[in-house]
């Protein structure tokens, strides 16, 4: 069952520079469907429209056009119902600084209309699960970056939402803290069957954590699929063959051309093929028949960055 549906969801901002007004199309018309229990990663370079989409889906921003249903309610006409049924952890975090960490979480629960005792019980449970033991009485500003991010997540989950939106949950965390948070997010789905929709810049995060990835670029979705399927369909494996001489380059190229378009960089000939593993034995035999003895053969599995590069001609790492 679909718990998030968007159709041609779009948002334009008008900005003023001096006397000139101009329009920025932040989100150009997004269609998406997310099923119950899925962990979906929303991936794209800086300025692609991730946060704007997320803010529309969480009712913090009105769409300019198009529609979206979240948890069974319309984001434009049933905003308070949507909010009651979701958890949202923003990029900047939601802690205010002065109150104790535990109080912040309980207050957040009260905001969602759950009784104090329940908010406290659930808050303490989350502190334990998110490895925040002993932090209940601490002021959030005295916590480390990773602990604060986990506190944000506890706040987003205190009312037991089955649908959670996370905006760049691990930005600014060290690799260990990131991996740790991935574990908690997966665990959440495992235990509660929650649906998680998260934005990220990190390819490895999308790869490790998400069942499905949506790639957005310039305000439009350019790809959707499991990390594996995207990599398989769009790029294929890269075979890189290094030979010992210029003569061998020509012969090796003839052999590799049977698999697809080759590129040559000095003594390295490359070709992309959907299933390199299956091709390799035949390739080696064909090279042998041509009298070419490779110096090295490398197979590189496609990365999500290759997917993005194929789709847009740019690397995700380069940003917008
Ligand atoms: N309030 C606003 N007024 C004007 N332009 C805006 C506003 N909010 C966002 N934009 C523009 O809309 C585009 C999309 O921004 P958005 O924050 O959604 O991207 P993003 O993918 O979340 O980027 P990042 O990864 O850097 O957070 C950008 O060009 C941004 O400058």
Automatic annotation (TrEMBL):
InterPro entries: AAA+_ATPase (IPR003593), ABC_transporter-like_ATP-bd (IPR003439), ABC_transporter-like_CS (IPR017871), DrrA (IPR005894), DrrA1/2-like_C (IPR025302), P-loop_NTPase (IPR027417). Keywords: ATP-binding, Nucleotide-binding, Transport. The keyword ATP-binding applies. It is found in: Cell membrane. Gene3D superfamilies: P-loop containing nucleotide triphosphate hydrolases. Residues 4-243 form the ABC transporter domain. NCBIfam families: drrA. This is ATP-binding cassette domain-containing protein. It comes from Naasia lichenicola.
């Amino acid at each position: 069952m679909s718990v998030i549906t968007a159709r041609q969801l779009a948002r334009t901002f008008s900005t003023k520079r001096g006397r000139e007004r101009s329009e920025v199309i932040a989100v150009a018309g997004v269609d998406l469907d997310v099923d119950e229990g899925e962990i979906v990663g929303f991936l794209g370079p800086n300025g692609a429209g991730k946060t704007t989409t997320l803010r529309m889906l969480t009712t913090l921003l009105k769409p300019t056009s198009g529609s979206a249903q979240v948890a069974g309610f319309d984001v434009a006409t049933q905003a308070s119902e949507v909010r009651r049924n979701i958890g949202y952890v923003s990029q900047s975090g939601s802690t205010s600084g002065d109150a104790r960490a535990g109080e912040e979480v309980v207050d957040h629960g009260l905001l969602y209309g759950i009784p104090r005792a329940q908010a406290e019980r659930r808050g303490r449970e989350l502190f334990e699960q998110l490895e925040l033991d002993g932090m209940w009485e601490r002021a959030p500003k005295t916590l480390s970056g990773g602990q604060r991010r986990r506190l944000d997540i506890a706040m987003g989950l205190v009312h037991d939402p089955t649908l959670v939106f996370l905006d760049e949950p691990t930005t600014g965390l060290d690799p260990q803290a990131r991996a740790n948070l991935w574990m908690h997010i997966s665990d959440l789905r495992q235990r509660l069957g929650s649906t998680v929709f998260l934005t990220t810049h990190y390819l490895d995060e999308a790869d490790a954590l998400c069942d499905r990835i949506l790639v957005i670029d310039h305000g439009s979705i350019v790809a959707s699929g499991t990390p594996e399927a995207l990599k398989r369909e769009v790029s294929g494996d890269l075979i890189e063959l290094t030979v010992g001489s210029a003569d061998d380059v020509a012969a090796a190229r003839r052999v590799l051309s049977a698999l697809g378009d080759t590129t040559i960089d000095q003594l390295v000939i490359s070709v992309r093929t959907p299933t390199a593993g299956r091709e390799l034995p035949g390739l080696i035999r064909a090279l042998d028949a041509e009298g070419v003895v490779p110096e090295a053969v490398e197979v590189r599995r496609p990365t999500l960055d290759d997917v993005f590069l194929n789709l847009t001609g740019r690397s995700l790492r380069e940003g917008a």
